[in-house]
Amino acid sequence: MNAHMYFIFFLERRMILNHFINILYKKPLIYIVPSIFFLCILLVNFVDRPLALYCKTHLSLPWEGFFGFLIGLGRSWTWCVTASVAFLIWNLKAHYSDRMRKKRLRAQSRVVLWLLTAMLGSGSLVAGLKIIFGRARPRLLFEQSFYGFNFFSGLDWVKQSFPSGHSQAIWVVTTVMTTLWPRYRLFFLILGGFVSTSRVVTTVHYLSDAVMGTFLGIACTVLLRDIFYRQDRCSHTRASSKGKRVSHARALKIISVNFCWNTRHRGNRG
Question: Which pTM does this prediction carry?
């Protein structure tokens, strides 16, 4: 009897554990968000200050110039202007194009609008968090030996360190690019990592600032992805054999660059 009760108890706990694992698999933000915050707390308390002091005293001039060049890729206004111009041009060209070309141009403009919306949305969130946390930049650590947060006083530039806006911007672009062209994801990931690292190495931000900015850029972009994924407008995003739906990444790739016209789906229609 006791063995039977222990067996039932074990099965119940196993079912609860499996249910919890399924929830985490379907909704990863449940554990990713607290993990990122816990990581940032550890970095703030044990890593940020000594790392900033080390970079300030050991960074050579050639490396500073290299990372300074990469900083330009993290300026959000550059990507916003580029995306806005591309969106207007493609929509204008679609207005004077035939039906098939119009669908391709409209699809490309939706992908650009996805990037623009993610950039503005996550950028607004980052700007609000900068004001709320009011974290002093490493510059104040070097000049006044001040290290820490001054909440709700982040209107001054020197107190807008957390989170990093450049890291947020470059990882919005990186997430979009890796979704559209997964074959080159390693290149995009390395590029995004270099830009985020440049903010730490050049002592403009602390490491935790870059980590949180990276997370916000990726999270906002992924959450907004499904809004611009229109499955009912593109029947060629379905597999031809059993009618299965392809992944969102593959669908966005097909929609944006119109690769579907060279795949087997075109032959099936012909």
Answer: 0.77
